[in-house]
Amino acid sequence: xxxxxxxxxxxxxxxxxxxxxxxxxxxxxxxxxxxxxxxxxxxxxxxxxxxxxxxxxxxxxxxxxxxxxxxxxxxxxxxxxxxxxxxxxxxxxxxxxxxxxxxxxxxxxxxxxxxxxxxxxxxxxxxxxxxxxxxxxxxxxxxxxxxxxxxxxxxxxxxxxxxxxxxxxxxxxxxxxxxxxxxxxxxxxxxx
Length: 192
Known about the structure:
- The chain is mainly alpha-helical.
- Helices cover about 65% and strands about 10% of the residues.
- The protein has one domain.
- It has eight helices and four strands.
- Strands 1-2 form a two-stranded antiparallel sheet. It has a two-stranded antiparallel sheet with strand order 3-4.
- Strand 1 and strand 2 form a beta hairpin.
- It is elongated.
């Protein structure tokens, strides 16, 4: 693998991450993000949520997909080819593999939210929200998303959890971006 051939992909990853870090979605998370639950005397459940608005979520997802869709060269999975090349150190390769493993463990783990006698993993919940409600809706995923949103007493729980998942993923993407900056700068010096 030649560094010049992979550089545009690495630069795009860094640029897309920078864009996400500066997004209104991230800005609103750093200001206030909360979920309150109240039970009334008649056993009714009321939820109050402070979260990014729908336009900010939609805009964030538009760029976030560059990191999770396998048809994108900037996806974390597709970067494994780069991290298995001679262009990175053993330590960088190990750190990348550990990061991927941690992401996979997190996404495979339970979201601790169930509906219709099914408990969602973090991956399933993220998938239903992104590909069933926010973009590229498939019929099956759209139906699942719509059934979640139809439950007024539960929809904010799901939105809160989904945003928490995005926050976790964003931390991982930022960590990877910082690794890539170090690698790119090292190679720029080598080829200067």
